[in-house]
Input
Amino acid sequence: MINFGIDIPNYIECPPDSMYVKIIEYGDRKSRGGLYLMKEQMDYEGHFAHPRWAQVVYKADNIKDIEVGDYIALDHGHWTTSMKMFINGNEETLWYVSPKSYKKGLIAMSKVMPSHLVEYLGE
Output
């Protein structure tokens, strides 16, 4: 995680076709067959790479089909490393989704949290 040590007073303004997300689905994952895939196996060199769900926190004004609070599934590798920042005095851990990733990596969206993500978060 990168700690930029910056304090953003209100909110993040995103460049066109970009967004910031949170709650990206990391960690161990259980396959439908009952196998546990460790997070390291899923990341390195694309082994067991899978799309991951995240929640949109900030988005560019020109993105009309997605709202803040929606959940999006991104193809593997279409997000940055996590970034820790302070927004309105609250610490946030966010990931950046670039215009290229928004256009080529977005594969699904949902207004409600996907059920397996509920399990992942332990809610």
Summary: Helices lie at 39-43, 99-105, 115-121. Residues 2-121 form a domain with the 10 Kd Chaperonin, Protein Cpn10; Chain O fold (CATH 2.30.33). The radius of gyration is 15 Å.
